[in-house]
Amino acid sequence: xxxxxxxxxxxxxxxxxxxxxxxxxxxxxxxxxxxxxxxxxxxxxxxxxxxxxxxxxxxxxxxxxxxxxxxxxxxxxxxxxxxxxxxxxxxxxxxxxxxxxxxxxxxxxxxxxxxxxxxxxxxxxxxxxxxxxxxxxxxxxxxxxxxxxxxxxxxxxxxxxxxxxxxxxxxxxxxxxxxxxxxxxxxxxxxxxxxxxxxxxxxxxxxxxxxxxxxxxxxxxxxxxxxxxxxxxxxxxxxxxxxxxxxxxxxxxxxxxxxxxxxxxxxxxxxxx
Length: 273
Ligand SMILES: NC(=O)c1ccc[n+]([C@@H]2O[C@H](COP(=O)([O-])OP(=O)(O)OC[C@H]3O[C@@H](n4cnc5c(N)ncnc54)[C@H](OP(=O)(O)O)[C@@H]3O)[C@@H](O)[C@H]2O)c1
Hints:
Blueprint: E1 14-18, H1 23-34, E2 38-43, H2 46-55, E3 60-63, H3 69-82, E4 86-89, H4 110-134, E5 142-147, H5 160-179, E6 185-190, H6 198-201, H7 213-229, E7 233-234, H8 238-247, H9 253-261
Parallel strand pairs: 1-2, 1-4, 2-3, 4-5, 5-6, 6-7
Helix pairs in contact: 1-7, 3-4, 4-5
Bound molecules: NADP nicotinamide-adenine-dinucleotide phosphate.
């Protein structure tokens, strides 16, 4: 039994995967599809979306850039019509940056990294929850999934913006889980291992993993299993589990409860705009 029980595992889910046309997102799409669930995938490359739609009949695809507000709203609207009850923030990019050189946020895709990896999941979650309230389906079970990386848990020097965006996403995910406790929305975080995907090749760092398609598929399968079980923290590979054990904070929940109890909203906070 997981932490957020989506209900019986035989029920068909409607799953949105950002950046699901290739890599780990594609592997999850393949697995959800094989299990008979409905899948809606977005990315920026129509050719790859078309290939996925041909490979997985019935899968919906939408060309959308999650860093753009108009595209995010179009994606959430499409997800609403689709009846989405599992939302997976998977899209991410990575680059190497050097603060001793003259790069700026606007060259070298640095700002894109902040927008795609950090701002986009936060905003998509807000819009997804807002849609559920507007549609009057707050009482229906749903799961929000953020795909993270063990690199969120320790300083990753060459890819420091990637590391920072994912570290921010990690704490946001943990805080969101606390805020949504007691609602019908469960929050899942996934820590994949190093995989030989396009993203890994963009790391611009030597010595990265060269594990192939078979491992990506197995990790995708394990991610889907964890999501459907409502496991809070999905560690789909022993290497990722080992890093999580080494680097994740180990504070007792009760200690965090005490701190949070002392940090409350002031009365009338919502009226101040
Ligand atoms: N690979 C690893 O070693 C590794 C390890 C740990 C965690 N992860 C995490 O796993 C997730 C998936 O990574 P991956 O390795 O599968 O990467 P990938 O193969 O590069 O796939 C990333 C997907 O995201 C899409 N994407 C990127 N920017 C987007 C945007 N602005 N809007 C919409 N879609 C966008 C890409 O398509 P377009 O470029 O066509 O938009 C692509 O479909 C990421 O969150 C990553 O941080 C990966």
